[in-house]
Amino acid sequence: MRRLLLASTLCVAAFLAGGCAGYKLGPTNNEVAGSRSVEFKPFQNQTQEPRLAEALAGSLRRHLQRDGTFVLDTRGGGDVLVTGTLTRYSREALSFQPRDILTVRDFRLTLAARVKAVDRQSGRTLLDREITGRTTMRIGADQTSAERQALPLLAEDLGRNIVSVMSEGSW
Length: 171
Description:
The chain is of the alpha/beta class. The chain has helices spanning 2-19, 52-67, 143-168, and strands spanning 37-40, 44-45, 71-72, 80-97, 100-119, 125-138.
């Protein structure tokens, strides 16, 4: 009876340990958490939509501090310098009013940014790619108010995606 209990306990322990084999505690890019600091320069806004760069800057700072892989450097001496350009802002119709197929009810907003991260010591480019953020916007009383309320959500999604690529990438 004891052997059967011991064998079943070992089987359960092996099963549970094998199920968690893919999980890793801490950063996934083989970096020690907090070992490198990142400085964000304000992104250039080449879109027609104003105030997107400011919303994105706040989002990037929040997500970088929340992630914990890197330390945010605001004084200008970070190990990694991140710059970028907001290249595209688009609005795509998702759904229409039930009885009026010409009036849009929901839009998908997309914001694309060309992001470049450079190691200050070596000058090596660590990241240079386009990253996008998306959100859905429902038109209420007027489109302008709905869009003004959706833009911070769009900047949050793009900021989350940029920090995710940085912290999960293998640089």
